[in-house]
């Protein structure tokens, strides 16, 4: 039943709404109590949340540094509302640029070791804006098949060719690049940390291949910023390739406790994206409160780089302990640790058992992951204490004993 989740998307017919009226899986799952999405959380303090009147350990958040409730971040956001109001009601291109945006862009560029950066209203828009600006009919984007959905959607909107290669497969990447005509401009675009399984892109090896074929290289580091590298500067700094990577894309909705996104690189390139990236021109600018919150969160990361160390320590501790219980935890190296179940219905049932016992996780099914890799996505924060993690592990152990053999995960 669950395997047919998206089957009706391809249905045709005269009535474009017919597929919506005929889609019954949501109603069936809701009635069964197994529907895991759009869960209403009553309160979220970071490491714990209140769900249906009870406290649960939150292992489903991207709040990696635990800053969404930090007093300095809250106050910065409130002060921005008092000073600027709630919205700029216009695009950055016209009336929506504040000195607040420009100060944040300068701070980000300095932090990442780049000449300039450009702030977008969401991280999703940052990828769309960069790709639509740079990849024209004489260009191509070469992307990892497992790259974030925003990259693949940006590729659909850009004018140039989109070519995919197998996930983290250096041999396939070189084969693809070798097949592209030399007069075609090429941008290689990958994730630094892959958002579902938490594995890293092999950036140094990819950089060598990019340099061999004289193509430009961009990295989406949404899940690396604040977690990896010296001072939490991300995956490019973790590998020491930040000077040679042309563009770094990121988001504020993970480590930087806000919403929004950015592209960082050479000033001339950023200026070009600023004038030709469609989301920059046709979307309202980042709300002042969001810009102020991200700026304050970045200040805290700079002042307290040990937060990034704690994220990694917590995640690696949980990866090791979950594996010792008998769960498969993949190749995770950052804040995300997958608990791979391997089948959709089983994933939802384990999710429900964990939630009923006090652990909030995120079930991820095909096509978000490959068939046979259906999982529970867990993620860890700098503010998770040993007591939080110990409680969560006890619940994972109990669930494994109760349902592991029945669900075929041991």
How would you characterize the overall build of this protein?
By secondary structure, the chain is α/β, with parallel strands linked by helices. It has 2 domains: 137 residues, Aspartate Aminotransferase, domain 1; 233 residues, Type I PLP-dependent aspartate aminotransferase-like (Major domain) (Aspartate Aminotransferase, domain 2, 3-Layer(aba) Sandwich), CATH 3.40.640.10. Helix content is 42%, strand content 16%. The strands form 3 sheets. Strands 4-10-9-8-7-5-6 form a 7-stranded mixed beta sheet, with helices on both faces. It is globular and about 60 Å long. The model has no long low-confidence stretch (mean pLDDT 94).
Keywords summarizing the entry:
42% helix, alpha/beta, single chain, Aspartate Aminotransferase, domain 2, 410 residues, 4-stranded mixed sheet, Aspartate Aminotransferase, domain 1, 15 helices
What's the architecture of the largest domain, going by CATH?
3-Layer(aba) Sandwich
Q: Into how many domains do the coordinates divide? A: 2
Q: Overall 3D geometry?
A: globular
CATH class of the largest domain: Alpha Beta
Beta-strand share of residues: 15-25%
Task: Give the terminus-to-terminus CA distance.
Answer: 24 Å
- Count of runs of 4 or more consecutive helical residues: 15
Overall radius of gyration: 22 Å
How are the strands of the largest sheet arranged?
A: 4-10-9-8-7-5-6
Which H/E pattern describes the elements? Answer: HHEEEHHEHEHEHEHEHEEHHHHEHEEEH
Structural class: alpha/beta
Poorly predicted sequence stretches spanning 5 or more consecutive residues: none
Helix content: 40-55%
